[in-house]
Every structure is written in structure tokens, then in C-alpha cells.
Amino acid sequence: MRPWSAVGTAVVLMMAVALTACSKAPQQTAQDQVVAVTRGTIEVSVASSGNVSLPHQATLTFGSVGTVKEVVVQEGAAVKAGQALASLDTASLEKAVAQAEYNLKSAQQALDETVQPADQGLSQAKAVEAVASARSQLQAAQDALGKAKAPYTDQDIKKQEEAVATAKSQLQAAQDALDKAKAPYTDQDVKKQEEAVVSAQSQLQAAQDALDKARAPYTPADVASASANVQWARETADNSQQQLENTQQVQAQVVSDASDLLASRKEAYRQVHLLKYGIFIPDADIFLDPTAVLAKYDANYTANLGDPNKAWKDLVAAKNSLATAQVQQAVALTAAQKALTQAQDALRNAQVTLDTMQAGPDTLDVALKEARVASAEAGLKAAEDTLATMKVGPDLLDVALKQARVASAEAGLKAAEDTLATMKAGPDPLDVALKEARVATAQATLSKAQEDLATATAGPDPLLVEQRKVGLRDAQVGLDDAKDRLAKASIKAPFDGVVAAVNVNVGDSVNASTAAVRLVDPTQVEVQAVVDEVDVLSIRTGQEVRLSLQAFPQARLTGTVKRVSLLSTRQAGIVSGKVHSLERVNFTDRDTLLTSPCGSARIRPVCR
Questions:
Q1: Which bin fits 505, alpha (ψ -120 to 50), beta or left (φ > 0)?
Q2: Adjacent-strand bridge partners of 587
Q3: How many other β-carbons are positioned within 10 Å of the β-carbon of residue 353?
Q4: For the whole model, what pTM was predicted?
Q5: Burial grade of 370 (CB within 10 A; 0-12, 13-18, 19 or more)
Q6: Is residue 593 within 8 Å of 581, Cβ to Cβ?
Q7: pLDDT single digits (tens) 207-231
């Protein structure tokens, strides 16, 4: 589609003026003919020239600074009112809105806190605490002032005298250390160090021997002996296993025989009582002696029946034999199991020894022995270095260090003596003045704390409340501005129309005045036409008009006269009037008009 032109040219204006024929009838004569009178419309076409324009159009901007994120229309596209046309990237604008909302919330909280602090009770408590603290500090300052005016007691002077004595002792110790540094080693010291060197050499030799042993730990004879030990231990373990099995069989038979004998003795004892007394003894009472059995089961029993019979004695003997057999079985099995365990342990140990010998040197042990050799070598070198140092004489650096310590001790002694002299001299006027200044400061602090306490209990400050309100209004204005900028980040059609131009692309940077989209309403057309001064008197506001385009004669539009100018114009000596515009035009073929950037138009006012 070609770009839309807001103004076209109208060159022909045709108007129809309605005239009414009204006249008096002449006097009738003998020769007159009677004719019926009728009414009709006379149309008059007036040729003229003028301009065609589209008055309802808009150049749309974003109203905000940003980067174009989306353009959803193209030139020539028909759109509806409220339809989105283009939009900006709103990330920063949304962030600005969020920040403005946070600022508004903070301002509201600040106002609420000022009007009615949440921690008002806490503030008052803190103010009370501050007053108490200030009083305490004032008391401490006053005490310090009193101390400055009488700084030292006899006890303080005594302690300082002791400090002077300590400083003298430290000086003497430093001097002794200096003397020692100047003559550090005696002949006896050198002799002891020579012995230490010999000992280090012996330790190195022992470590080297141990390393050699670790690298070749076993001879072929050692391996053969270990192999023989494994064989002997295996045979011993096999014999112990066989002995355990034999013991289990023998002892099991012994216990079985004792159990069978006990069972037969129980039955014999039970039969004796059953046959002689008619009493059956249950297993629970089988080991009761005859006297106890008769006392339990025979109401006529008396103690004169005599001693227990032989069957009971045989039963008890069988019971004891079974217990003895069971104990002997446990002892024999334990001993056999222990012998087997020992034989198996001996076999495992012999096998481990053999495996160790056959595996060769232990790399970990060799590494350990090598480390010990290295350590012994380092120890020997250190001992030799120390001996060499002893033979060289005093260490000049150490002597210098000891001299510095002597100087420090002398300075410490002097400082202690000066302090003692100061103590004995009495109060220091400068220190007293300093303490008096601190008392004054503490008094001022107490006064300030008392004022703050009074303020905390007096309620909010009106001036501060008003400042908070101003801050809240400013925050609200900031939020409204941020929301407005966010809302303007999207261009929407303000009315139904056609996109005449798109001046931005995705990614373009724009400001608030960048013309992004131009929109026109092709349903509203204005025509300004110049009419002859004689014919203009026939045109009235509101009169119906038919409009045709000379370039597109098939197009038909209708409208009304909006205004007729009261002023005339003169062109080439001809006086004319001007019809300023059409109030509204109805399209019968809108697309035809849109495709014509300019053209001629014929206007026909209808007068009836």
C-alpha cells in the first residue's frame, strides 16, 4: 500500500439547490388556459476546487525511554481501538515499579513508626537505661578524679618498689645471659658434644645394619626350617582333630550308659514302692528318699518304718554317676577342643611365617629402616655441626641479641624507677585536669540522656511526622510515575483505523517523544471547497452532500456540510465563498479511497 496522504485535492464541486416555484396566478381572460401547478426540485451543479483531508489521525509515541521489544503491526494494517501495536522491554520499568512500591512501603512504615513506634516501650526502656548508664559513668569519672587527686597509696608505692626490684633482677639475668653468650662453651661442653657425635655415629651404624637386615631378612636355611614347622603344625592339627572326634565318641558312650543305668534305677525304685506300698512316684519326686515318699503319699506312715531301702540308694548312685560322666565329658571335650584350636593357631602362624619368608623383603619395613638411616645421618650431621659451632667460639648474632636484651632490661629498670619517683612526687596536675574534663563530659552525657528520656516519653515530634508524610507523598508520586512509565511502554490504538507508518524496529532505542506509529481513521474525511459567491448562498450547514472521487468514479461517499465560511475570498478577480468541511463521510468503498494518496473530488449538495 502506498503511504497515506492526509490531504487530497478536490477540483469539482457540484451542488443542488432546492428552489420552490411560487407565483400569483394572473387574471383570467377569455384567452387564458388553465394549467395545474406542481412542485419539484431543481438541481444545480457547481464546479469548484478544494482539498480532501483525513482529520482524525494520531502520531503515537511510547512516552517512555527504552528498547523496542515487539512490533506487532505493519503499515496498512487495520486495527481496532485498544489493540496493541508495539511494546518496549519492560524489565527495567518493572524493576523501577517494584523499587517504587518498596519505597512507598518503607515510607509508610517510617510514618507509622514515627506516629506510633512499635518499640516505644523499648525506646523508653533504653532511655531509662541510658540515664542509669550515664549516672554510672559520671560516678566512675568522679571516682577517677578523686583517684587522680590522691593517686597513690602506700600499698601502690610498695608494689612499685617491688617492680623496681624485679626490673633489677631481670637486668642481672640479661647481663648473665650476655656473659654466657660471650663465652658460651667450656672444655667440658666440647667434650660432651664429641661424645654425642660418637653416639650419633653408632646410631647411624645400627640403623644401617637394620636396613641391610631388612633388605635380606631370611636365609635358605630359615625358609627350610619354616617349611618344616608348617608340616609339623599341620600333622599336629590333624592328630588333635582325630583326638577330638575319638573323645566325643567315647564320652558320648559313657554318658549314654550312665543315662541308661539311671533310667533302669528309676524304674526299679518306682516298682519297689508300687509293689510294696502301692504308691506310684512321678518323675518330679523320683529322687525323694523312701521316708519322704511315704510321708508325702501315705497318710498312715510313721517314722518307725526304718531306713531307706537299697533301691533308692542304687538310684542316687546312678544319678551321681550320670552327673560325673557328663562333667567328665565336658572336661574331656573342652581339653580336646583347646588342643585342636592351639594346633590350628600354630599351623596358621607357621604358615604366615613361611609365606612372609617366601615373599621376600617387606617394602614397608625397608622404607622404615631407610627413613631411620636418613634420620641417623641427619642427627650425626647436626651433632657434628654443633661440635663445629662450639669450636668456632661465640655467636656474634647471639651476643648482639643478648646485648639488646640487656639494654631493654636497663630501660625497663629506668622506667620502673621513674614511675616510683612519680608516685612519690604526688598528684599529676595534668592528669587531674584530664579527669576533671571527663567528669564534665559525663555530666553533659547525663543531661543529654535525661533529655532523651523526656523526649521518649513526650510522644512523636510533629516536625518529624510532617517530614515522614512528605516522604510518603513523594514515594506515592514516584510509584505513580513508575507505573505510568510502565503503562506507556506499550502503544495501543486509541481508535479504529489504519496504520499509516511504522517508524521503529525491534531493538531500536527510543525516548518519550520518538514517533513510533502513525494511525489514521479513514472513515472521517474533510473537504474544503471554494464556491462562487452567488452559489454559496444556496449551501447551508447540515445540508446532505454526495462526494465522488474523479480518479475512482465508482466510489460513493455521503456526508453533511459542517461549516460555511462567513468570509469571502478573491482569486483572479472572482469573489468566492468557502465550504470549510464535511462533518462526516460514510464510505461505500473505503479501500478505494485508501489506495488513493490524492485526487479530485466532486461534491453535490442536495437541496430540497
A1: beta
A2: 557
A3: 18
A4: 0.35
A5: middle
A6: no
A7: 998 888 787 777 788 788 888 888 8
